[in-house]
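Input sequence (339 aa), recorded before submission:
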Amino acid sequence: MSSAPPRLDGLRIGVVGVGHLGAYHLAKYLTHPAVASITLHDSEPGKAERHVEGIEAPIPLTVAGTLDECLAVSDAVSVAVPTTLHLDVATSALDAGCHVLVEKPIAGDSGEAKQLVSAAAGAGAILQVGHVERFNPAFQGLDVSSLTPGFIEAHRLAPYNPRGTDVGVVFDLMVHDLDLILYLVGENPASVEAVGVPVITGTTDIANARITFPGGCVANITASRVSLAPMRKLRVFQPNGYLSFDLQKGTRELVRLRETGEHVEAEETAIMQIGEHAVTRSERGGGEDALALEIDAFIRAVLAGIQNETVVPPYGVSGVEAAEALDLAERITRQIGTD
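Predicted structure, token format:
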């Protein structure tokens, strides 16, 4: 992880929702040198108290009985409650003067997302969203401006897990890849076609979407939460080569045609010859903690005063970007017609 921001007097952090994701957020905040104290709150009585039992915290770690009490002693908060509560909790935090990192998807629907973006702008506060795949080691050091995607293929497959099934697979899993694809292409979609079916739950459990962009790029995306083996892969095809991202391993592979006499990077390996062109391959990534990078980016943004605008790492995914991904997810679910 990159070096930490200046400690100053330290930030007072709140974590609202101490479930699966909230616990991970807490763990990253506990080891960040810019954090001075942490306050937890969960609406389930006793849950936060049980969670802190046995934790040897290097900084003050307390539990607030109410959301208002938590917000009153926090400069910035992570909101890790169910999606249906994102709007109410995050708005309360913004109204209390807190900067907000809310888990993905940003809200229950695009209307709520717009309300959150507007509330953050009105409060002059930072609103970032937990699209953690942007911080996957496979994406670190990637110069998106150098890409000219013509076709993108994404597969995000997972075994069934009851957690997250309050929403369909498009909002639960596919939204990660929607954010990545919008980031890579840099355009809003021209058209969307999608199919999907429920298998185990009452909502869509497997879905496929084909998205066409004004510049000609086409993305084909599959998401499933009823697969036997997990897979998180994304491939970007462009003139003279392609990029393959293995998000599960955190690696990126570049395969490209090299012109005769063209400079070859030290990490590139020749794998075949096609006429006058050599085909080379290089691989990068691995080893970094994506959530730790995301938490660090949020803290850096708070300390730097970055406002709610479209930004890229080292700062996180803005509310504006997350709202665009959610809007695309809604277009897909409307096409499917089951969520």
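Checked by second reader. The chain has a mean pLDDT of 88.
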